[in-house]
Amino acid sequence: MAVADPDNILEHDDHHHDPFIAHHFESAEQQFDSGKLGIWIFLVTEVLFFSGLFVAYTLYRIHHPEIFQQAHHFLDKNLGAMNTIVLLFSSLTMALGVHAAQNGDNKKCGIYTLITMVCAAMFLGVKAVEYSHKWDLGIFVRSTFDYAEHHPEGISPYLIKLSVIPALLLVGFIGASVFSKMTEKDLLAKFFGGMAVTVGGYFLGALVGLGFMALTAGGDAHASHEVAASPLVLQAMSIDEDEKHDEHSHEEGDHDHAGDDHAHDDHSHDGDHGHAAHGAAKEPMHRDVGTFFSIYYCMTGLHAIHIIAGIIALAWVFWRCLALHWRPDYFGPVDYVGLYWHLVDLIWIYLFPLLYLID
Amino acid sequence: MASAEIRNKIFDTPSVNYLNHQKGWKSWAFTLDHKRIGIMYLIGVTAALLLAGVFALVLRSHLFSYQGAMLSDEMYNQMFTLHGAIMVFSFIIPSVPAALGNIVLPMMLGAKDVAFPRMNLASFYLWIIGTGCLFAAILSGRGLDTGWTFYTPYSIDTSSAVIFATFGAFVLGFSSIFTGLNFLVTINTMRAPGQTWFKLPLFLWSLYATSIIQVLATPVLGITLLLLIAERTMHIGIFDPTYGGDPVLFQHFFWFYSHPAVYIMILPAMGIISELISVYSQKRIFGYSFIAFSSVAIALLGFLVWGHHMFTSGQSPVVTLIFSAITFTVAIPSAVKVFNWLATLYKGSILLNTPMCYALSFIFLFGIGGLTGLFLGTLSVDIHLHDTYFVVAHFHFVMVGGTLTAFLGGLFHWWPKIFGRMYNDLMGRVGCFLVFAGFNLTFFPQFVMGSRGMPRRYASYDPEFQIFHQWSTVGAFVLGIGIVVSFVVLAYAAFRGPRCGSNPFRAASLEWQTSSPPDFHNFIHKPIMTDPYDFDSQVYDETLDTYIPRELADPAKVPPRKTPAHH
Amino acid sequence: MAGSNHSDHPPFNHPAPLPLLIGVFLALVFLTILTLVTSNIELAQFAFAIAMLIATAKAALVCAFFMHMFWDKGFNILFFLSSTLFVSLFIGVTLLDTGAYKESIDVFPRAAEPAKAAAPESPAE
Question: What is the set of domains in chain A, with CATH numbers?
Answer without folding.
Answer: 24-247+275-356 (1.20.120.80)
